[in-house]
């Protein structure tokens, strides 16, 4: 039975203009390390300007990259602890 509770808080920041949205995702881990990732979205010139949609797309892309960076970090830590090369971690 598990009793330890750990929480992660992911921070998202957005920068936008009329055509582009950039997102940055950041998570601070309990070991003190930080993992940061970026995402972007571009609005086609004929599309209606909907900033929320750009944020959702750019945010999702940043979170996807964040997930991949966390998998890579975990994979590297497994290799370091075991002293051998392990099988890749796939989503």
TrEMBL record:
<dbReference type="InterPro" id="IPR038070">
    <property type="entry name" value="Rv2632c-like_sf"/>
</dbReference>
<protein>
    <submittedName>
        <fullName>DUF1876 domain-containing protein</fullName>
    </submittedName>
</protein>
<dbReference type="Pfam" id="PF08962">
    <property type="entry name" value="Rv2632c-like"/>
</dbReference>
<dbReference type="InterPro" id="IPR015057">
    <property type="entry name" value="Rv2632c-like"/>
</dbReference>
<feature type="region of interest" description="Disordered">
    <location>
        <begin position="33"/>
        <end position="53"/>
    </location>
</feature>
